[in-house]
Amino acid sequence: MHASVALATAALLLPTAALADATPADLPRLGTSNEAISVIGVSSGGYMATQLAVAWPDRFEGLAVLAAGPWSCAQGGLGRALAQCMGTRRGPPELDVLNRRLRDYQARGLVGEAMDLAELRAYVWHGDDDGVVAPALGRALAEQLADWLTNPADQLEFVLAPDIGHGWPVRTDERIPPTWLAQCRTGGGTHLLACGQDIAGEALQWLHGGLTPPSTGAASEGSLLAFDQSDFPARGLGPVGYVWIPEACEAGGCDLTVALHGCGMAHEQIDEAFVRHSGLNEWASANHRVVLYPQAGTSLANPQGCWDWWGFAESTWQLDPCTTPAKGCRCAP
Question: What is the pTM of this model?
């Protein structure tokens, strides 16, 4: 599944083409810059964001993870995923085991180079009242990243937020329908937590620095476009993804952020709540940044539309999902 997100990212790096429709059938070619790409995700999307950064660290400048644990925590096992990567009743993840797994993947060329991974900037956030993914797992991710980075004191920010539950904190805004907001501490619903916190801005500022804050209360200048995800032949994608394009980015040359929703947060479950009101769009418009919102699909095996955070698409006989790629799948960096 991570290969399809990378393909969508690559499509945005292609030369500029005219936008033919208000809601194009295909992901538009916007000629985005490849110099300051970031990936940010929450819950299962947070786990997937780290997978992307580990798989292609040379493509990303920054990684932001909300309410998720360390890379490869579940090691492909559902039992471990539930007992050690959401709760911790089987004890905390063994980071030395996961690091050995990473070195093995690197040695076989299944993920990116350690030297590229070491240069990332990383932001890890977790609510200390999270009852879905234990806060200790966010701390474990921060410890894992600290082992990988060249200078974690300068490259890594870890935030454990008091009195906040599981989800994506947002500023309350009269433009957000009340039904699209969840309680800050208890979460649920859309998982957009009415905490009065601009997590999007905090994360992007840490990852990229020197950004211009958006004007308070002003409407963002840009367009939210739906695009057809069937062009990306990978299991688990929904039929439609979204991309936020600031007006200033229609001519190309803008930076890019990939934003990954959590379980139960895709368009199929909460309409456009996340893709419109994450807070990322306002920061993107103020700073010439496109936001790509891939969407995971629902199925009998994945009713909540989660990203493949525990490895159900991986097997012991095919560790690399691109060993026998689907027609049209391009997995090379």
Answer: 0.89
